[in-house]
Amino acid sequence: GENVEQHPSTLSVQEGDSAVIKCTYSDSASNYFPWYKQELGKGPQLIIDIRSNVGEKKDQRIAVTLNKTAKHFSLHITETQPEDSAVYFCAAAFYQKVTFGIGTKLQVIP
Amino acid sequence: GAGVSQSPRYKVAKRGQDVALRCDPISGHVSLFWYQQALGQGPEFLTYFQNEAQLDKSGLPSDRFFAERPEGSVSTLKIQRTQQEDSAVYLCASSPVDFSTDTQYFGPGTRLTVL
After folding, report:
1. pLDDT by residue (tens digit) across B86-108?
2. Which chain A positions have a beta carbon within 8 Å of B48's beta carbon?
3. Which of A17, A50, A73, B31 is most buried per CB count within 10 Å?
4. CA distances from A31 to A49, B89, B102, B106 (A)
């Protein structure tokens, strides 16, 4: 089955700096890569996603890149704000099966 | 509009008890997913429904776990003879289309603690 590795597990940045989270996946059949933000006591919320026919996607301060050959994908958050503090999960999906990474706890220090 | 709701939000059970967890998906959503999230881990897929049909139950950890969605809307995850290792947050998600390659909307989860 699919295996998704995510790092780092924790990340502290100063407000205004950038944050980068990296993931790798094992199954070349995976074709959809969503990123979720989870705040304490809440369910994950989709923040951005990318499909296998696209190499990069940007939405305001958030961008994702995908390297299908290397089976790598990354999340970039620019100009971080305290409200960006949360746990971020990458995931790889093929049809109904979604495999999540272990999560990255991001702390933005004011 | 209303999102995915789950009840109860917290459940404490004694080992050996049966529990039932409810999920109310967004109205009209075709797909419904259940996940198990252990402390400090990412969600792990349990099972998937397309309307009332359970198309994939490969993630259910044992035959003590059973899920149903009889009318294609509300779903119930039942755990029989609960064990301590069943302690986790159980998340439900729904999607308007029939595959996962679209946004899944998650509920807040039910935190199950087995004593």
Report:
1. 999 999 999 988 665 678 899 99
2. 96-97
3. A73
4. 11, 27, 11, 21
